[in-house]
Amino acid sequence: MRNTVGSSNESIGLEKESGQNDTFVQDSSQLKEIGNKGKKRSFLLLLIGLFLVFLFLQRGINSFNKSRVSEGNKLTKESFVSQNGSIGNNIEEKAEVEQVKVPEVDMLLSALVYLSGTGWSGNIREELPIGIDNLGKGRLEEYLRWEEEGDAKLLIPNNEIGYFLGERAQQNITRVLKEARRQFLDYLLEKQVNKIYIDEIEREVLPPERIFYYSKNDPNSDFTRTEAVILEDKLTKDYRKLAMHVYPVDIYNRVRILKRTGIWQEQEELVEAAAKFLVFHEMTHVLQQAYVNKHLPADKNKPSIKSLWRWADKTLVGVSSKHFWDWGGGAMKDSNNKTIADESQAEGVAWLVLASVYNLNEQQASSVWKHAYGRLTKLRGQLEEIRKLSSSYPRFSPEDMAEPLAKVVEKYPDPSKARKLGMIARRIISLPAYVGYANPMQPEESNLLWRALRD
Ligand SMILES: [Zn+2]
Predict the structure, then answer these.
(1) What is the pLDDT of residue 5?
(2) Which of 32, 350, 410, 452 is the most buried (most CB within 10 A)?
(3) Ligand 1 center to 131 CA (angstroms)
(4) pLDDT greater than 50 at residue 73
């Protein structure tokens, strides 16, 4: 099972959803019918008026207007960000998209709720005063079911496999990935990002030949990622330079999400859009690295140091500080918050670039947002509860629960289930990334990002 919510941890099948537009179309056809009934007309119009006012208040001004945007109403790229300013908020309120189930987050929250009722001290070095029965056997069984469901949904079915696997697909997708990289850089130019960062990406951080696609059909393959290149001695890494490794499962997961928007009709177009959406996320990490590289003092420019960003005189992390956690004030605090910022920005920027490249109108862009991020509303709520519960323990950092909690669930009587539960619990270590995925950078926040990148 995948452990990155943003890439492919989930696999919710949502066949039909009652979107705002559907609702509006229904409303207007009812209006027409009522209008033909003569006498009662004015009274009914009054009722309709009241009903519309009610809807208006319910949905908020933005979402109400959005439901009327016509298909052909393309936004100019400049107006896009500000006009979409509140998309995320609407989704949060409506939460009409089927929600992602993340067993490790549910498990951590259940454990913390239980522990906080026992007078637990918050010391994770001592054995946790919690057992299988406290977590609930039925609940643990359910986590295993979620895992299986997830795997099944992320296995590419035979009738779609030709788009992902085989020589032709390999060539085609590799071409698409490189084209997406180019389009991302063009978008940066459009946003007036300082040329020094774009040059740094071209020359150092990610030239196109460092993009790799691995065509295998495995829900549990490695993760799509950008990571430091390994130098010729095969031992040291250069953290200023990245390679992008892309796996079909992560494209397929985004295919499933984008399909629900109904924007891309042909399967080939859908696969291409999904692959690009994924690359735009990864390219944001490339951009973050380029920014760090250009802000390293000369005497601190040591490529083999993993946390090179700590030496940079400026980073982009602060742009997203509103999503930061306290993490018990411990040693990992800055690093965890950087992960939150990195992932939050990657999701928010990926959405912006996708909307720009496909010239999506506001309604379409909003639909992508809803299907990609609206499914994280419940997760966001659970993470927030975890944050609050954790903050009552000084120096306690919730991602440190990964190993102690794995030890607890590995006492499950069935050994193979015990092993799987332990695996789920250990994914709690990725908690900072989940916080980032669950809080994608909002369009208004992105203005701060572009501003920082212009200097
Ligand atoms: Zn990422």
Answers:
(1) 56
(2) 350
(3) 34
(4) no
